Amino acid sequence: MEIDTPTDSGATSSGPGSVSVRLHPLVVLNISEHWTRYKVRENSPGVIVYGALLGTQEGHHVEISNSFELLLDDPHFSVNAEFYSTRESQCKQVYPDLDIVGWYATGGPITEKDELLNRCKN
């Protein structure tokens, strides 16, 4: 019988160029609540929601601690700058040590819209 050796955390590293990520459970709950709220409101099976990820990055270690939803302006598929700015400043007041470290999208594979969001300057 073989027993796997336990690791010290859920994050793994496979080499010098790798990145370790620690995802706090609150982020999973926030994203789930965000998606559920839109799913109920839209009553559509293909609901996709987008949001910002807050955390810290030190070298190749990223810790994602919180998140907030993003409002997108259709048809240009750009982030609503006013909403984003307000939410970012609110988060900075409560969590001064956290920065935007990325974004999330629910749904299937990455789409052209997701690529546009990734390039968004707002």
UniProtKB/TrEMBL annotation:
GO molecular function: metallopeptidase activity
GO cellular component, one term: COP9 signalosome
Sequence ranges assigned to domain MPN in this UniProt record: 21-122
Pfam families referenced in this protein's UniProt entry, alphabetically: JAB
PANTHER family: COP9 SIGNALOSOME COMPLEX SUBUNIT 6, EUKARYOTIC TRANSLATION INITIATION FACTOR 3 SUBUNIT F-RELATED
Similarity comment: Belongs to the peptidase M67A family. CSN6 subfamily.
Protein name: COP9 signalosome complex subunit 6
